[in-house]
């Protein structure tokens, strides 16, 4: 039998300091950090940047692990320590600059469009497609000649 090696360094692990995104419940769409692991289903989370999100235990099924980690966060660290490390790491800036956050913001903007605004987007996309096809046809005709 052959040996199998599993490289797990790129996996998102449930760990103290991991930044999570709430996907369900009353805190949906908010960021927090794992402060303590309670058991295999629950973690203690805290969000120093958002006063409306208190320190509480949350089920892992309601969270999504992000790629962001706050390194060297001590277990069960208080809000003050977490706030200092959160700001030192620039978690909000890194999150807002990520493709994931930008696509979530884009989807949110699309959901909030009115009927007329959706129509304007449709017309703009049609016009863009027309211009691209026109340029492509010009290049193709010059290549044949």
TrEMBL record:
GO molecular-function term, one example from the UniProt record: RNA binding
Keyword Ribonucleoprotein appears in the UniProt entry: yes
Pfam families tied to this protein: KOW (PF00467), Ribosomal_L14e (PF01929)
CDD domains: eL14
Domain Large ribosomal subunit protein eL14: 54-129
Subcellular compartments: Cytoplasm
InterPro entries: KOW (IPR005824), Rib_uL2_dom2 (IPR014722), Ribosomal_eL14 (IPR039660), Ribosomal_eL14_dom (IPR002784), Translation_prot_SH3-like_sf (IPR008991)
Domain KOW span(s) in chain numbering: 16-46
Domain of life: Eukaryota
Residues of the signal peptide: none
Record key words, sorted: Cytoplasm, Ribonucleoprotein, Ribosomal protein
Matches recorded under SUPFAM superfamilies: Translation proteins SH3-like domain (SSF50104)
Gene Ontology terms: biological process: ribosomal large subunit biogenesis; translation
Transmembrane segments: none
Function text: Component of the ribosome, a large ribonucleoprotein complex responsible for the synthesis of proteins in the cell. The small ribosomal subunit (SSU) binds messenger RNAs (mRNAs) and translates the encoded message by selecting cognate aminoacyl-transfer RNA (tRNA) molecules. The large subunit (LSU) contains the ribosomal catalytic site termed the peptidyl transferase center (PTC), which catalyzes the formation of peptide bonds, thereby polymerizing the amino acids delivered by tRNAs into a polypeptide chain.
PANTHER family documented for this protein: 60S RIBOSOMAL PROTEIN L14, LARGE RIBOSOMAL SUBUNIT PROTEIN EL14
Protein family according to the UniProt entry: Belongs to the eukaryotic ribosomal protein eL14 family.
Listed name of the protein: Ribosomal protein L14e domain-containing protein
Source organism per UniProt: Carpinus fangiana
